[in-house]
Amino acid sequence: MSEHSVPHPVARILVVDDDPTVAEVVTGYLERARFAVEHASDGVDALRRAGERRPDLVVLDLMLPGLDGLEVCRRLRAAGPVPIIMLTARSDEEDRVTGLEVGADDYVTKPFSPRELVLRVASVLRRDRAATTAAPRGTLRAGDLTVDPETRRATRAGRELALTLREFDLLAYFLEHPGTAHGREALMRRVWGWDFGDLSTVTVHVRRLRAKIEEDPARPALIQTVWGVGYRFEPGPGQEALG
């Protein structure tokens, strides 16, 4: 896909970065790719703009003055679903994973290729719009787990699970394909529609999902690790996944 092949209607992107040079470059590339772009130079301004008119996607710098990117991400997520791609100058994996754990959908490490960022933005938006316009699927069940793709609700033993968008999509995919081993690259492509990205994204979402559905996340029985391959969902004896 070229950087000009962008889904329609025109998506609104909020770029949050206190570095004027980075903000100017990112904004310029996104605008040339036919996106509508707003820029906020700090976290408070970003939350104000998002509250006035919710963007379709946020490109969010981790290192912001005052209210940092992690806290901005938490507050954006608390206000409602919105895709977030985090920018970070840090190379430490712990910082990148922390961004994913508070709700970022992906991250790009500085220095980065603006063209690659445009492609990632377009890819995330395509996935979100596909999920919105897809034909309704039937309710999925496995043991005491129930997932309703149409209402975007998931429960365990009658109690609603607080899942992020990515966690919900991953759980629904596992229930639709029980007993099958899935590699992390395949999960990125089939669940979220990403043709590229850091595989730790999948690892983090699996870990977070296990913490919400497993009896003992340290010894997972439902989402099992298949060494050298990836993961497999096992409903358990007498608990087949049903559509």
Automatic annotation (TrEMBL):
CDD domains, A to Z: REC_OmpR, trans_reg_C
Record has Protein transport as a keyword: no
Known DNA-binding region: 137-235
Protein's UniProt keywords contain DNA-binding: yes
Gene3D superfamilies recorded: 3.40.50.2300, 6.10.250.690, Winged helix-like DNA-binding domain superfamily/Winged helix DNA-binding domain (1.10.10.10)
Gene Ontology MF: a single term: DNA binding
Domain spans labelled Response regulatory: 12-125
Residue positions, PTM 4-aspartylphosphate: D61
UniProt keyword annotations, A-Z: DNA-binding, Phosphoprotein, Transcription, Transcription regulation
Matching PANTHER family: DNA-BINDING DUAL TRANSCRIPTIONAL REGULATOR OMPR (PTHR48111:SF4), REGULATOR OF RPOS (PTHR48111)
Protein name per UniProt: DNA-binding response regulator
Record organism: Streptomyces hydrogenans
